Amino acid sequence: MPKDSTLKSILIIGSGPIIIGQACEFDYSGTQALRSLREDGIETILINSNPATIMTDPTMADHVYLLPLNTKSLVKILKEHPHIDAVLPTMGGQTALNLCIEADEKGIWKDFDVKIIGVDIDAINITEDREKFRELMLKIGVGMAPQATANSYLKGKEIAQEFGFPLVIRASYTLGGDGASIVHDEKDFDELLTRGLEVSPIHEVMIDKALIGWKEYELELLRDKNDNVVIICTIENMDPMGIHTGDSITVAPAMTLSDKTYQRMRDMAIHMMRSIGDFAGGCNVQFAVSPDEKEDIIAIEINPRVSRSSALASKATGYPIAKIAAKLALGYHLDELNNQITGSTSALFEPTLDYVVVKIPRWNFDKFEGSDRTLGLQMKAVGEVMAIGRSFQEALHKATQSLEIKRNGLGADGKGYTDYHQIIDKLTNASWDRVFAIYDAINMGIPLSRIHEITKIDMWFLKQYEELHQIEQQISTFNINTIERDLLLEAKQKGYGDRQIAHMLKCLESEVYNKRVEFNINRVYKLVDTCAAEFKAETPYYYSTFENEVENADGERYSVNESVVSDKKKIIVLGSGPNRIGQGIEFDYCCVHGVLASAECGYETIMINCNPETVSTDFDIADKLYFEPVFWEHIYDIIRHEKPEGVIVQLGGQTALKLAEKLDRYGIKIIGTTYKSLDLAEDRGSFSTLLKENNIPYPEFDVASTADEALAVADKLDFPILVRPSYVLGGQGMKIVINKKELEEHVVDLLRKIPNNKLLLDHYLDGAIEAEADAICDGENVYIIGIMEHIEPCGIHSGDSNATLPPFNLGELVMQQIKDHTKKIALALNTVGLINIQFAIKDEVVYIIEANPRASRTVPFIAKAYGEPYVNYATKVMLGEKKVTDFDFNPQLEGFAIKQPVFSFNKFPNVNKQLGPEMKSTGESILFIDSLKDDQFYDLYARRRMYLSK
Asked: Which of 58, 93, 90, 63 is nearest to 78 (CA)?
């Protein structure tokens, strides 16, 4: 039993809606903590307002409260559960910590006799109050950059005068670098100082002398009540100081740190953790190291909680930090707990890696037209990918293949930059695609010394790039018939995709693949085992690589594949890749449920995904986890290795759906709705024919693939016209145009960005009401799980609309049309599984905007609002285990549930915040109201037309 046997019931505070700077890594941490506490028989109570995450699923905690994260909600919960013994606030990011502190200041924990566990409030205050933190570091002998605190404009000006430029401004008590900036020049100082003071909830900033060009490292620590400390992972930022760690390319283990300096850094981190307070749990410490031979170490900050990096560190090492941190909060000691990967070593055993992990952030600047795309101290990424390889080069390539930005890896895909000035600009003003620009610079012949001088990226990393460039040059002298086995194997070991090698050899990807088969160059799978294979691992968590063959005593040549294939029936679930606007954590929720439901049906479950922040990539969700890019070549090799019954694509958003055509072409079974039906729904012409045959109205439309064709279409359709490219997610590139000039400009721009795309032009139903329906269909029966009405008018993307469940003012005639259309379309498309249909309602007529025969953004929301596991049901239907009529549907909802979008515009101060057909929200929350007389509904309804941009 836990050391503290008085803890029987624990409240966990979640992190709320996804925003830039606080994404689903905290849902992953919170989910792990909930599972960890329940293992110990503890009653768990969760408060979190995010309906899209698996964390708020009723199966995760004993009591889930989907309430706003404020002290009023806390008091409501504490009154309903007077027996709560403790609160664990360290799993919900800054949001949870700030709420815990506020409740502490108001005396709420004291009033209800609730202990705070897993953290020490004084420790938080010390680390957040930059002045106190600085004083403490100086007292314990830990170096820091010259810095001072300002809580007024005048004080800030005085400090700047004393320190000189460049300077760093950091706002106190903020997350994701909110309000932080580097000031190179006096002329920008006034504006950035004012902004920092405004953003900080206590109107205080810390001004530091900028350590431009220093190297940056992070250490993830865990400590127990007995003062045992383990360092789980050392992460090195490839980008030097000056770029927020959430926007940096990071590598584990550290690559360019001498052992002597690493030992000093370890000692400092442990010393810092012990000095800030006597607490048990996780801690993240960030350091800067001078780029010279002295390797001076300076502390940047310390976070006494699980952090963004601890999700990454957990996935990188296989050591479940949040799970163990929750146990430590109960009073366990590290040496009493098992390492859950090996099953045989203790949690006090520090992980050792015999592979390299690379994380690359994923940005969405295209959604924020006019935003400043350079990277700095304020985080701008919306998600991230992680890749595991046997070398830095292999991991770097796999990470770039995971980003889903239409690149096949670094270079060798015909998409590199070729303009000298553009490349220099991207290196000088740290750009989001600098990872590619470095390769292009080397390709152009810009010397490494010059690239280093501009970027301050360590020469070791640049030399790794140079080696990749050299092998590309070498391969380009061959063709598919003359390439040697050793050279092809080396290219694969360095992470080059078949598509890239085909580009170098001027042949087809399939020819390279066939050559690999001929040469017996096959992927092998290795276990992530936390201990460099010194101990046997129990959990099947794999990454792929290519190995040289070894010869045994009998003269047999082989390479070791650690992924043993069982003879059970298997199902593969394709994950949704990195989080981005339009495809967020809701698809991770669907994938997890898909895996669990497949297991209930007796299948061995296999998950493929590359997102380190999510629950789907936890080592014990599926029977087997392949931490690999959701990229055709990787998927196909896993399928050939595992030989599954089929692949589920409709739960992983557009990422998985886009692979359906290839799966179909290669004769691999798609579980549920077939590729033919998926494609029919995407092909506007065929889909409209289907609607016409079923007497279902739709807005007048036509298709165009050139600006001339678009202008000819405009003569037939009345303006306003909604223009959208096909096969995109989150309304990418959608716009409402009101005249020919706007139409021509937008079409030319779209075709430049997405060449060879078929554009859809719809007559836009101005002033229409928008609604959507989600349903489950088994090919014969249809059950509508929910109909939602949008508060904003038609024309604002459904992901950006406030939407009510059930609808609030659609008459019976309209509701009947929605139900009839939904059933007809689901059956006509031969849907097996989930389908989402969007409607525009004008003059009591219901028009179809689009149909998506897959899991949608709203499915988790409806499941939470009605308290029913719809994805579980839909998966069983897809697998043919159940019919829709086998389920006893019993939705429970009093009043209304409202899906409220949440935006991260504060990261892009100069961006147009008007909403339109292209999605811009980063997350959502759920609001329950008893009736339409509720003030919050009135407020939303009153503002419904404010944002529409044409």
From this structure: 63
